[in-house]
Predict the 3D structure of the following.
Amino acid sequence: MITVENVSKSFVLHNQGAAEISVMAGASLSVAQGECIALVGASGAGKSTLMRMIYGNYLTQSGRIMVGDLDVVTAAPRQVIQLRRTTLGYVSQFLRVVPRVSTLDVVAEPLMATGSDRASAEAQAKTLLQRLNIPERLWQLSPTTFSGGEQQRVNIARGFAYPYPALLLDEPTASLDPVNRATVLKMIAEAKARGAAIIGIFHDHAARDEICDRQFDVTRFTPGLAA
Amino acid sequence: MSDYNFAYLDEQTKRMIRRAILKGLAIPGYQVPFASREMPMPYGWGTGGVQVSAAVLTPEDRFKVIDQGADDTTNAVSIRRFFEKTAGVAVTEATTEASVIQTRHRIPETPLREDQILVYQVPIPEPLRFLEPSEVETRKMHSLEEYGLMHVKLYEDISQHGAIATAYAYPVKVEGRYVMDPSPIPKFDNPKLEMAGIQLFGAGREQRIYAVPPYTQVVSLDFDDYPFEPTKADHACDLCGATDSYLDELIMDDAGGRMFMCSDTDYCGARRAAGHLGAQGAPLAEDAA
Amino acid sequence: MTPLLQVEGIAKMYGARIGCTDVSFDLYPGEVMGIVGESGSGKSTLLNCLAGHVQPDAGAVRFDTRAEGLRDTVTMSEPERRMLSRTDWAFVHQHARDGLRMNVSAGGNVGERLMAVNARHYGDIRDKAIDWLGRVEISADRIDDRPTAFSGGMQQRLQIARNLVTGPRLVFMDEPTGGLDVSVQARLLDLLRGLVREMGLSAIIVTHDLAVVRLLADRLMVMKDGHVIESGLTDQVLDDPQHAYTQLLVSSVLQV
């Protein structure tokens, strides 16, 4: 479902003396449907970078990244947008929302964007929020004032609202207490069971071992860090 | 006779005005620019109408001038005397006997014939002016038939007054193409704009001439659910008893006494001469001057 | 799929000075394109060339008209272009005063475009105006008030209602939140976002405010000195800027 072939990335910092920093070289990886892969490696080795490259948020200098039938590296912007809407989900570390939108609307949005009517989208959103223990009195409020843990759970609810065939999860269990952590792991397992291809970053080793089938060490492809 | 050229204007000027008139007749409702001359009366006193009349009069014509329907106001009298002096044409107060009628702000009640010409005095020829001050823009709107703004004006009337409040100078669409200001005639007169006579409109200060040929379609603008109504005061003329003519209201005293009479003096007089009398009417001979 | 707008090689010079040059892109239905740059970058010149307010010196702007497919609007006759700008296109000005009739009521402002395409039933026009005022969060009891009685944010929302009432397919926006208080901006952006999604609009938004494009635009073009120096997905250009100027622009934004 997700295939990364020989990708390289470097940053050129023009305003700092045109310093060129090569952060990845020749990385290759593939994830089948129903698999969950953990990206591992020291902080700064390139785990989030690789995830962002797959999502199209970062440009890839060379190589191919196939998600389904689309090569993200050479795709037109509207193709990537379409991919993000219906195929590839991404739960980042931080919740980024538009001000004034209620929690319920934030979670329902991926469903509405893929054609669900408001009523059923809201119903599903409510189920998810309940599952993640977000109290009902918060549903009409904007999540911008919530605690870190609450924001993270809203973030996850949004990421799992629509059954994406491929998912990218960056620290999904960070800031969560044991109960919610277990719920999230269960949700990831359910996604696996329905055939989603999942790439995750977990600093929580126990969670990683519980849910992931394989590990991928990005350090092998980080110039200057290769062991 | 006098030392003036016939009807005051020189022949070249008359030719220029006639060209404008022909163009106006060829494009009904379209405002034709013309080189308005300095006339021996100030702007705002009918110079446009006077120039058009001067250009169309011939020595055989019989000329009538009305001002708000009356032949005997100062302005009507002045203009009539002007043409008596400079053109030597016969004059009359009887609508049926006139071949050229110059008018300010009314159409005669008596329907005109194919051999008659009606010349209107026009202050502001541009119907869109009050909503769109730019001349460049209004010319574009006319040429591109962009008249949405005209309906905005009517919309505003209804939203503010519950009905289209425009009582005079009510805009019309001519031959399905140009929107025209019929000059400040009461909306009651709008239906008469479809007539057998030739209608010429002159605006001296604004330097525009426009025209409506005989039997041209002239439709007053409205909304489907607020149709045009040519309303007048719900009275009969107190002098002649007419129920179908536009009325002037005269305050008689300070106790609320008032009288309604036909604005068209010739129409009223003719009816009284034929024996019709209204509530306060007396036989014609007893009228004060 | 046919692009809604196909821009090819647009250039506008002011004597020897470059207004904008060599701009080409395709815009598809439902896409929002942001154009950012600082003062003098050429973004407003470009927008005016695209919207037909200014005649470009070179290039084509092909729009997918309903009746005749792709037509170059640069070479179109003026009546056709004016008709397009009253029906399929909309233009939201930076200053609401430039996009509204200040001496006409709110209802009249919203109804004008309808009346311009021959709506002739007062009741229907008024109902539609009330509906649209509601959608831009202006209370219905203000329908007969003049825009002079409105706050800046309300005037801007009225301008949006006036433009969208005929269901255009392409909206041009020039600094739509410029000059408004921050809280008012947030509300307006949220409204625009919702309307764009709901109506499936395509939009081209010129702004110097990166937060606005991040919120509203799918794609981004960065302009400097009349040239497009970088373009791509909005989040990609902002998170992984390639060009020196883009990097400078992004790093200059204060994080609150």
Observations:
- The radius of gyration of chain B is 20 Å.
- The first helix of chain B runs from residue 11 to 26.
- Chain B has a mean pLDDT of 93.
